[in-house]
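# step 3/5: fold
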Amino acid sequence: MRDIRVALGQIAPRLGDIEANLEIHRRAAAEAARDGADLIAFPELSLTGYQLADLVPELAVPVDDPRLAPLFEASDEIDLVFGFVEEGPGHRFYNSAVYLSAGRVVHVHRKLYLPTYGMFQEGREFARGYRAKYFESPWGPAGLLVCEDLWHMPCAWLLAHQGAEVIFVLSNGPTRGATPGREVTSVSVWRELLQTTARFQTTWMVYVNRTGCEDGVTFGGGSLVVDPFGRVVAEAPALDEALPLVDLKTEVLRRARTVYPLLRDENLELVEGELARLRRLRYDLPDPTAATEKDGVV
C-alpha cells in the first residue's frame, strides 16, 4: 500500500430518506477532500438508516442506479466507502458496502452475518452474502466488512490472508448503556475487538459507526482507526457527528509485519485439515480417510 489519508464520516443518516442522505454524503465528501483526505468512509446503511423493516424493498437499488450519480461524481475527487440496500440478481436485497473511485465501482461487499436476535432482525430483511474477498484499491489491497462480520473471526482472517492491508468496517452499533464516569459501553467493546483483530492480522482497521436515534434506539458513534500494532491512532467522539482525518502509513504496516510475522507463519494446511474434520463432526459425515475392511486394510 501507499500512504493514504482517510476521513471517518461519522454521520446521523435520516431513516428512509435517500435524497437527504445523498446530500449529507456529498457535503461530507467535499469537506474531507478540501482537508486533503484521499478517502472518506461512511457507516453501515449510511444511505438509508438502519431500522428499515418493510422499507427494505422500497429503498433497495442496484449499485449502478442513476440516483447514486452524486456519489459517483464525488468519487472523482475523493474515494468513497458507504453502505446501502443493494438489489441484486433475483430481486434479493443485501446489506451492502461499496467502494467507489474515479467514477466507478471498485468493489461491493454483501454482509455475511445477519444478526437476528435481540433488537436485530436482519435475517428477516436481507439475503446473506457469501464471499469475503479482498480487492485492489487505487492505493493498495483492502477489504470491506459490515458490522457483525467482524465478530466472526474468519472474516478478517480471510481478508488478511488474501492480501488486505487495510480493512474497513462499516457499522450501525447501538449504545449499550453507560456507567457514570465511564464511556458508552459499546464503544469500549468495539475498541477491544478492533485492537485484537488488528494485532492478530497485522492490518490497519478503519471502523466507522453512525450516530443519531431511530425508533428509540441510540447509535453510539466512537468511530476509530487502529494500526497494525493494535494502537488506536484516531477516534471520533461518542454520540456526536464528526469528521476526523487520519494518515495510514505503509511504514507502520511494514514494521508490524516484520516484528510479528503472523501471516507469514500461518499453517494453512493445518487449518484446511481441521476445517474438514470439524465439518464432518458438525454434519455427521463419514471420514473418507478412515480405514475399512472394504479397502482391504485390517
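# step 4/5: annotate
The domain at 4-266 is CATH 3.60.110.10 (Nitrilase/N-carbamoyl-D-aminoacid amidohydrolase).
# step 5/5: archive (pending)
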